[in-house]
Design a protein that fits this description.
- With 359 residues, the chain is an alpha/beta fold.
- 43% of the residues lie in helices and 12% in strands.
- The termini are far apart.
- The strands form 3 sheets. Strands 1, 2, 3, 10 and 11 form a 5-stranded parallel sheet that branches.
- It has helices spanning 36-51, 62-67, 69-77, 97-115, 135-142, 196-201, 204-216, 241-248, 254-264, 270-273, 296-323, 329-339, 342-358, and strands at residues 7-13, 57-60, 81-84, 121-122, 147-148, 167-171, 174-178, 183-186, 189-192, 222-225, 267-268.
- The longest helix has 28 residues, at 296-323.
- It has 13 helices and 11 strands.
């Protein structure tokens, strides 16, 4: 019998104020107990992982490793993999190659000084590796990194040039493994589902089905989670419209959803899934085919999604009846919304918002 596919579980170890485009928030985090909420949320994650005997990869912001070394040591002592997530959570395209290299080395040193172990992986803040800055992979390989997990293979985010599953990319210093964000096909586009906002708004049953489908093709799915996503009591910050939606939408669903997934799927560290570690990585080895797959949570998720979709169709049908010969606008408008250059639009809003806060 073929061994079940093991999926990668990753944690982006960043704090509530590490929001790209809103760097002014870091100034609000100057008090001595600034990491108390982070430590509390990480403790919650470590408890969940221990409950299901799972090892995960923590992509660590370097400044956290520098200022809270005891937190990093606790994660490492629990047997989890540590990897880099930038020193100050800056996107690659906001830096020159020289700035990126300096940022990378500071992060690498901060983590390795605490653990005494070499780190192998890197994830760019906000998935900011694009075709235009592939020089970052050269720098990663130059300094001994063996894998990267920074690509989003979505066409409207500039990622249509990248593969959908783990593969090697050639650099000046040899090949480096790339583990792209997992996606599913929706008509002509790929959509993410395995972490952050996409996981919070995607129905539980569909996350499970998409993972199962990809695993049947013998490929792993990479899941990701932020500690602040488990903190429903965090103080809401004044953010731009898109950032506020991405950061706070449906936070209350995270803990239950990730708990159900940990119970139903096979997980391990990124290095183990990519075959970079000879060490046996513990995990919950579940035969998904024979396990109690269609449980109450699954059907509850299906039923809730069905009601939502039917409600949407009812609204559209009613609108079409009222609009009559102008009903074709119900197709034109959604297509326009989908293909509108929202990135440029929201970048302008974020720039104005940052300027207002700096004043």
């Amino acid at each position: 019998m073929k061994d079940p596919v093991i999926n990668a579980l990753s944690i982006d170890l960043e704090d509530w104020y590490h929001i790209c485009g809103h760097e002014h928030l870091s100034k609000l985090n100057q008090c001595s107990d600034s990491y108390d909420r982070l430590k509390k949320n990480v403790a919650k994650i470590l408890s969940l992982l221990k409950q299901y005997d799972i090892r995960a990869t923590f992509f660590v912001v370097g400044s956290i490793a520098k200022d809270a070394p005891e937190l990093i040591k606790r994660i490492a002592d629990a047997g989890h993999e540590l990897a880099a997530h930038g020193f100050s959570h800056r996107r690659i395209f906001d830096m020159t190659p020289e700035e990126f290299e300096e940022d990378l080395l500071r992060t690498k040193a901060a983590i390795e000084d605490v653990t005494g172990r070499k780190i192998l992986g890197y994830r760019a803040p906000e998935w900011s590796l694009k075709k235009t800055n592939l020089w970052a992979l050269d720098i990663l390989k130059k300094h001994g990194f063996t894998y990267d997990a920074s690509v989003v293979p979505l066409s409207h985010l500039g990622g249509k040039y990248f593969n959908s599953y783990p593969y090697e990319i050639k650099t000046k210093y040899g090949n480096i493994l790339e583990f792209p964000l997992s996606t599913f096909r929706c008509l002509w586009e790929k959509l993410p589902f395995s972490g952050g906002l996409p996981m919070r708004i995607t129905p539980y049953f569909y996350i499970l089905d998409c993972t199962r489908m990809i695993n049947r093709l013998s490929y792993p799915v990479i899941f990701y989670l932020h500690p602040w996503e488990l903190d429903n009591e965090q103080e809401k910050q004044r953010l731009s419209i898109n950032r506020g939606f991405m950061h706070y939408c449906n936070l209350e669903s995270t803990e239950e959803k990730i708990g159900l997934l940990l119970k139903r799927l096979n997980f391990s560290t990124v290095e183990h899934v990519l075959g970079l570690s000879d060490k046996v990585s513990q995990g919950n080895h579940i035969d998904v085919e024979k396990d109690k797959y269609y449980d109450l949570h699954y059907f509850k998720s299906v039923f809730s999604s069905f009601l939502l979709i039917m409600s949407i169709f009812l609204v559209l049908f009613t609108a079409a009846c009222l609009m009559r010969k102008y009903a074709f606008l119900l197709v034109i408008i959604p297509l326009t919304i989908f293909y509108w250059p929202w990135g440029l639009f929201f970048n302008k809003i974020n720039a104005l918002f940052s300027q207002e806060n700096s004043e």
